[in-house]
Amino acid sequence: MPREGAARSEGGLAEDGQLWDWQRPSVLLVEDDAGDAVLVEELLADSMIDPRLTWVQSLAEARRELAGGAVGCVLLDLHLPDGQGLQALAEILGQAGSAAVVVLTGLAEEQTGLAAVAAGAQDYLVKGRVEPELLGRAVRYAMQRKQAEVAAAALQASRLQAQENARLERGLLPSPLLRRPGGIDVVAAYRPGRAQTLLGGDFYDVVQGVDGTVHALIGDVSGHGPDEAALGVALRIAWRTLTLSGHTGAEAAGMLEQVLVAERPSVGIFATLTTLELPEDRRWMRVLRAGHPGLLLHTPAGVELLEVAGGPALGILPGLARWEQQEVELPAGAGVTVFTDGLFEGHTGRGPERLGEEGLLALAREHAALPAQQFVDALIDRTQQLARHHGGLADDVAVVHLR
Q: How is domain 3-153 classified at the CATH fold level?
């Protein structure tokens, strides 16, 4: 059983719940020699710090203490009954987590101390040459160095994650591929939700066929994270490939479902989507919905929420689902806005009320006279503002506006 020195007080954490308490650190002494343990305890008692000291006599006991996670610094002797030298250090480092490690060596083992630092310890002390002030300072500095290492590692991980997210985002959010620029105005926007340290699975695309038909896609993979984002990229690229090779409508939806089923990380993952086809005369469009929200139709008479008949989301009924395209007339100068559900699922105040599709329609009518880019920005900004009491929109938002 671990033995507690007189310097130990109740609890293993600082009063604020943190391990990094420089004046009252939680110190674990791993030392099988009782005389040396008493000496270290006396030195700590006379030092500039007031530690919570726990003494154990073996690696096995040390591992149990470290598993509790309430240790700020480990003082480690390298000669233990169940571990010797750098092998003992390696075992402690593997369990230490955010705890600093200071190695205790004998008078003739200074090279071993240097090797221990090279192997990952924050510092080493030579028994017989340690004074109270030196020991207290070594413990504090070791903890500070460990904290700096932990912060640096977290920063590097964050940078790598940001780079990966940027690569995935480029795949999710492409530039429209228009063969005849000027024939149609396209505005696309994406905003990550406040809860997303990881990219979500919203995706969109716009391409134009050789016959002048403009094809648009917007979709949303359930869940959040790199797997869902990567699946969104796969679906978008597959859709563009299918569209440019002449496979559209229900046929393309069936093929996209096959891609989703083959690539999804778990059977519970599904994807909603809407596809649009606008022939060159722009007098009508074909709409296919697979579990996705409706769309906003802009006409000279105003803005309406259009919800044509559709089918289930991709992946809900693999191989059994059926989808049909619906034709919708387009008055001269009409515009269409498609979006993911993050745009209307945000809160509208301090309570649980959410905007909903009707609330989104009211916002769209309020800003209908704005130019396309300003209209899209206003929709997102207003929904974000309405959700400010809940920290903003929680989910990702993708919007595509065609006119």
A: Rossmann fold (3.40.50)
